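@channel sequence for tomorrow's demo:
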Amino acid sequence: MKIFLTLISIALMTLSLVACNQEPAPPAAAPAAAPAPTAAPTPAAAPATAGGVTGTVVETMNAAGYTYVQVDNGKEKIWAAAPQFTVAVGDSVVVPEGMAMHDYHSKSLNRDFSVVYFVDSVLNASSDGASAANTPAPLSALPAMNGSTMPKGHPSTSVSATATDVDFSNIKKPEGGMTVGEIFAGKTDLSGKEVTLRAKVVKFSPQIMGKNWLHLQDGTGDDSAGTHDLTVTSKTDAKVGDTVLVKGPVTLDKDFGYGYKYTIIIEDANVTVE
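structure tokens (generated this afternoon):
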């Protein structure tokens, strides 16, 4: 029995020595920290929409054949002036694109304005008969055709290029296509038909009534008769000076309301910037 106990003691001592000589197992590696999520890039600010301002009249006055309106669009207030029209504080109006006159002094009002936008007309959406359905958006792409004439000495409101500003020497009529002048000349027979033309963009107004508006010229037509500049609507973006290939149907006598009319226009065209 004594021998048995001695053997057990020796075995226990041996186990203790082995245990003491063993290094403790290294701790389990901590899971790698998850990489910090990459911050989503801040979206680029949307470019300011060109073409005009829609807002509420907060101040107005008449002077020397003009109506001046201060319009608040919720972000800023601007002054605009147009041939005299009926409007009141609180009315909703649309000011189309016009000529900005900086540091303008009105002699008739004896008042200084940091900037005033002179336009051919201001659309009053709150006038009798106006509704959200038939009130056009700022048709900066459309020339005013309502018979209004600017008072004597009114600053120019033209913002589109003229034929003399643009080089048309590289414009070639597309195969099977037409020129601007030919489209105007044959408009009666072309009504409702698709035409193809190549021209340069002399004015571009984006996202008006959900469309882009392009004024196109190719050096043909009669400037004095207004048959040198053709208006096209499209979803395609372009910029002034671009050469574009256009395919679309001809529409005659298009009336957008408020006196804005087109004798000819190509709507919803397929436009390719070349």
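heads up for whoever presents: The domain at 48-159 is CATH 2.40.50 (OB fold (Dihydrolipoamide Acetyltransferase, E2P)).
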